[in-house]
Design goal:
- This protein has a domain of about 55 residues.
- About 10% of the residues lie in helices and about 20% in strands.
- The protein has two helices and 19 strands.
- A hairpin with a 5-residue loop joins strand 6 and strand 7.
Amino acid sequence: MNVSVRFAFGWLLASCWLAACAISHSPLRGDAAADRASDRVVGDRFDPPDGRDVTAVDGVVPVDGPDASDVVTLPDIVCVPNCAGRACGDDGCGGTCGGPCGGGMTCNASGMCVCAPNCAGRMCGPDGCGGMCGPGCATGMTCSASGTCMCVPNCAGRVCGPDGCGGMCGGPCPAGMACNSGGMCMCARNCTGRMCGPDGCGGMCGTCSPPAVCDNPMGRCVCTPNCGGRSCGPDGCGGSCGGCSVGSGCSSGGMCVRCGGGGEPCCSGLCGSLSLICSGGMCASCGDMGEPCCLFGYCSSGRCMSGRCG
């Protein structure tokens, strides 16, 4: 073998040896790195099978062993913004989709600008987005421009009395008149302490039972005793026109007459003989057949049946 051939062959062997060494100690990428030692790269951390936990330095981590030349180069991770169908809000990469929403608008979870209801400090009225602020006003209340519930005075058809909101409809009624439940000034009846007589409004406070009559100035029922031509008996007002002496009784005409005998007035409801009975204020015969029974049901003939002897 001549010198030229021997030189060329030696150069070829040296080149192959150097290439093999470079491959065994060069950084691995892609599938070559996975085939190199079945190692895993997680994020910027390298997780080899032997349990070592090595952090990447400048984008490379060692593959096996402490030799810093055994490395795997990690690819750069690029975040892709996601704004498909979104006009606002987070793009998933720390930025935003589109610009900020206009005045009175807010970005919802779907990335769309929608009307933002404005009910701060409001309990009623529009919310600015076609809805209403709650809870709303109770019956008889109305919503003010500031969104607060206010009482609405009710004076329709009323000239006096309360307006339902703590005020009054119109002014006070004239003297002698009073406000009725319908809010109208009407004549005020004056029957305080009065039992009878006019009420001041064309009516009456009441009437008296005869024989009592009304004392108009006082409005009280008074009775005038009636004893004209009478010496005994009731006076018509619960009193008496006088009494009679013993043996006399008061007749229906108010006169004292002999009493107790047959055909005579009864003496205080009694007659002077057991054969007489007081009936209708007069002493009448009793006890014989067909006559009224005497006191205690006594009959001189027959028996007392149903108040008569038979």
